[in-house]
Amino acid sequence: MTKNLRVKSSEYIDETNRISFKFNGKTYHGFKGDTLASALLANNVHLVGRSFKYHRPRGIMTSGSEEPNAIVQVNPGTNITEPNVRATEVEIYEGLEASSQNCWPSVEFDIGGINNFLSPFFPAGFYYKTFMWPASFWEKYEFFIRHSAGLGKSPTSSDPDIYDHRNIHCDVLVVGAGISGILAAKNAAKNNFKTLIVDEKNELGGSTIFENNEFNKIDNKTPSEWLKKEIKELKNIKNLEIKTRTSVAAYHQYNYLLARENLTDHLEAKDKTNKIRQRLLKIRAKKVILATGALERPLIFNNNDRPGIMLSSAIKKYSEFYGVACGSKNIFFTNNDSAYESALSLYNKGINVKAIIDIREQSESKIVKKVKEAGIKVYWSHTIVDTAGYKRLNGISIMKLSNDGTSVTGSKISISCDCLGVAGGWTPAVHLYTQSGSKLKFDEEKQIFLPNQNTSKQISVGSCGGDFKIDEIIKNLNQKLKDNLNIKETDLDNIKVEIDQENSKRNIWLLPSDKPLGKTKPFVDYQNDATAKDIKLALREGFRSIEHVKRYTTTGMGTDQGKLGNMHALGIIADTAGVKMGELGTTTFRPPYTPLTFGTIVGRNVGKFFDIFRRTPMNDWHVENKAEFENVGQWKRAWYYPINGETMHQAVQRESKAARESAGILDASTLGKIDIQGSDASEFLNRVYTNAWSKLAIGKCRYGLMLNEDGMVYDDGVTTRLGENHYIMTTTTGGAANVLGKLEDYLQTEWPELDVYLTSVTDHYATASLCGPNSKKILKKIIPDLDLSDENFPHMSFKEAHIGNIQCRIMRISFTGEHSYEINVQASYGKDLWEKCMEAGQEFNITPYGTETMHLLRAEKGFIIVGQDTDGTMTPIDLQMDWIVSKKKYDFIGKRSLYRSDTMREDRKQLVGLLTEDPNEVLEEGAQIVSELNKSPVEMLGHVTSSYFSPNLKKSIALAVVRGGKDMMGKKLFVPMENKNINVTVANPVFYDEKNERLNA
Amino acid sequence: MFLINCPYCGERDQQEFKAGGEAHIERPKQPTELSDDEWAEYLFMRKNIKGVQFERWNHTHGCRKWFNMVRDTSNDEIKAIYKMGEKPPSQ
Asked: What pLDDT does residue A145 have?
């Protein structure tokens, strides 16, 4: 089977550098410069995969990123494996392994191939129609459907490769380095525009680089010779950056483009080590020049998918660029002149071309004459009605086409062949153009969708802009460059171009066969096995919108996004429904143009860099002392400090008792801190908090509650008046950034007349909260000269002090209900402060406690946590915090909403305490609360928001929100759980020290 | 991804900004005088039009200043940007 089909040495293939690789476990050889596709073809391997639905054998069809069939699993079974890679884009390297997808046990013998023979039973919408009934069977169906869904296998362990991101700002971005792109980039850069040109291939030059049609001349040279000279000059131009192996994936608004630069995929393992695999380029360009070229269209005829059937242009590229003959008995099937170029290219290399089947009546161009002179038989007005060969094409049958092109006449001629090149004309690659938001128009004459406009920010040049002939390309490119870049002269002004081709082209979207359509398989979407008959079925079943037909038939929904067949799908719909292509529109081209790996998208933001996290200045101490941590917003907060293998419950019980019986210490550095200054600071606080601030004395602290304009509790915290016009506000840990944003918003937009300045100082201070009956003694040891008497330093007041040379702010405030102090020092002294407290507290068995104990202690006191006991639907009245809502103030944020009919309802959910009948039964947070059992449906009254076992009260306590709960004191309710119903009683949410006697203990 | 011309900092990438909803909705000076319906109109009712829309934006990861933008939501063309307190351009 394997014979070498190299025909002639090519300058792009290094035949001195022989490379071995494995495909489906078998070792093959190729050369440096080969793609997996070209190397396989050189080894006469056409069969590379199985189609998705019918498991039909499929071969390599194209030579580029539009490949629908030859998608392979690269490096299967390793942690760097990648599915759905186009064999036409994989550059081979020593040690490369690849395998076919969607076949079992092998691509040669695939059990799923039975689907091909059952295909009459798998029409479009098969799954939708079949698995509707009985509904209860869906779970069984789903198992099998899921099993057969998807192409390829994703890696099962984490990706070891390194990916990177880079931002690029340029004046001009040129996408595509074919002849138009190269000339555009050259002239832009020469005119002092900072220019970047990218191309998905590893070589510049597009298809012109192997364009040797002797009847086309640029300055008396063949286009390829001429372009090679231009490319050489390119490399010496300043202001020009060239990136090959770089594929633009997305074109967003405002000329923001994402491109994937492939750096090491073509290298062998030893050269990849510690190198960046792929880089995502985030490009912001002042102007974008799209030179993305055109994709050759296939032709849609019966059994047009067999291995060995390829695009005519691909056959030419394999022959000219890679020096590979795709077959030894070649036939071309065409509706235009370009197949003749391919045929001649093979002929000139001594490769047999048996015939050309042309659906046109004739063509007068020089190249057609030349082909005829070469003795190649041309069948005019003929079409292929069938093909033969299961795993490799071995013949075609042709018949004469009727004048209107809808049927065939005469007798059938069979011709044997092993390779068929199809040429259906060219489709401009307008994918990126439409992604940018620009609109297309349909050109009836050329039967293509074209960019409708060129703006000052973006132009489409070359064949993606509708210019296919070299003379047109150069002339129009020159004018567009002058207009768009505002330049007077270019080096394109004096180029002499001679061209041959004539325009004659006959477009038939679906070619007829001697068999009725129902008995044929004319594939439109090769990857998803959608045929012309599926599309017609969808239309018969009432689908009209192209977007609906696409989803029903899955046309264009494969990994190739239907780059080859979409136009034919549109054409067949238009013909069948009797509408014009232009009116039908197209499906939406969405990014990415070719698939991107997740690694490229994520870049360096993996593992610990996935999300930012913040640590307090005392963090090292917590780590050294074996704290468990919890995430609070972006912060890592000490959660609890287990000793000797304690569980969380045991640790929290111990910490909670210690804090109330002697002394505890909490790292409160994460609380948001906002420094507020200005002559209107007091007035500002009056407006943002529900309570009054004007009369707060300097050196005093006050708890404040902040609402949203809708009256719902937004944040809370203690604010201290440091001076006449100076306050420091604390916010919740998670709310700090939002609160600052909200305050700035009001200051800038609603109250610009207020003289107030806000500065976030959260990170500038470290805070240790010292609490418990012995906290005063400990503080006295640290700051002996500070008078800590209740007269001098009462609850809710503030003192400046020094610990040694360190200045500190001390607030005597309490979130636990105990006598306590919050000591703030400059962040860099945080750990020092903490250690001093620990040392001074040693004799009192000072116990560090984490957030869990903090939550328990405050719950014993019935203090809310915004975000735990509230959820954006609780007013202060709902929280039974009427005391903090000023009745005297004319206005504050959210005040008016407290008097809306809805917020004044008596049966709103209100915060209450819950006590369980069994004091050892701890409720689950989030559990629902009902007043009746044995009723269905039962009315949910509310839910448990906080729940703990209190070691100080020796019983279970909970906070909950209950509809109308305010008036339910003492009422018995139920918390139904999976296995039992828990009896609870509504209680005062302040469970501990209701008279606040411990604050001054 | 828009390119937004912050009136204080110049052109910056959209990811530095946060959108802040419809512009020119002034907080009533005397909320207590308003009926429930009038207050609800201020509080909840926002336009979401296809076409030219006036919106507030904040340069969150920059100067933190709020400003106004006139944007055509059908094609995301930014038609004008002006500072808070300045008069909106006539259409």
From this structure: 62
B4 touches B56 (CB < 8 A): no
Q: Using the predicted structure, report yes or no on whether residue A133 has a pLDDT greater than 70.
A: no
Q: How confident is the model at residue A2 (pLDDT cuts 50, 70, 90)?
A: very low
B43 contact residues in A (CB cutoff 8 A):
709-710, 897
Domains of chain B: 3-83 (3.30.2270.10)
A421 neighbors A311 (Cβ within 8 angstroms)? yes
ipTM: 0.98
Average of per-residue pLDDT values in chain B: 95
As a whole number, the mean pLDDT across chain A is 93
The H or E element that residue A853 is part of is: helix A851-860
The shortest CB-CB distance from A748 to any of B34, B43, B65 is to B65
- What does CATH list as the number for A1-160? 3.10.20.440
Choosing among 3.50.50.60, 3.30.470.10, 3.40.50.720, 3.40.50.150, the CATH entry for A310-424 is 3.50.50.60
- Give the chain A residue whose CA is nearest to the CA of B61: A741
Span B43-64, mean pLDDT? 96
Which of A749, A875, A888, A903 to mutate against chain B (most B CBs within 10 Å)? A749
Joined tokens for residue A241 = 């950056």
Q: Rounded to a whole number, what is the distance in Å from the CA of B84 to chain A's nearest CA?
A: 7
Instruction: Nearest chain A residue to B5 by CA: give it.
Output: A254
Report the residue of B16, B36, B56, B86 to disrupt the A interface, i.e. the one with the largest count of A CBs within 10 Å. B36
Domain boundary assignment for chain A:
1-160, 163-294+428-498, 310-424, 517-595, 667-857, 905-1000
Top pLDDT among A11 and A790 is at: A790
B51 touches chain A (CB under 8 A): no
**DSSP 8-state assignment for residue A748:** I
CATH 3.30.420.40 fits A667-857, yes or no: no
Residues of B in contact with A284 (CB under 8 A): 3, 13
Separation between Cα atoms, residue A137 and residue A148, nearest integer Å: 17
Q: Looking at the predicted structure, is the pLDDT value of residue A369 above 70? A: yes
**pLDDT for the residue numbered A160:** 92
3-state secondary structure of B61: coil
Q: Report the gap between the CA of B52 and the closest CA in chain A (Å).
A: 17
In angstroms, the separation between the Cα of residue B24 and the nearest Cα of chain A is 10
Q: Angle at the Cα of A964 (from A958 to A968), degrees rounded to 5?
A: 65
Q: In terms of Cα–Cα distance, which of A287, A289, A311, A317 is closest to A298?
A: A311
Helix (H, G, I), strand (E, B) or coil at A168: strand
Calculate mean pLDDT across residues A286-300: 97
B40 to chain A: which residues are within 8 Å by CB?
A: 900
Whether residue A212 has pLDDT greater than 90 = no
Q: Do A897 and B85 count as a contact with CB atoms less than 8 A apart? A: no
Q: What would the CATH number be for the domain defined by A517-595?
A: 1.10.10
In the DSSP assignment, the letter for residue A418 is: S
Please state, as a whole number, how many other Cβ atoms lie within 10 Å of the Cβ of residue A724: 9
Q: What is the pLDDT of residue A438?
A: 87
Give domain A905-1000's CATH number out of 2.40.30.110, 3.40.718.10, 1.10.10.10, 1.10.3670.10: 2.40.30.110
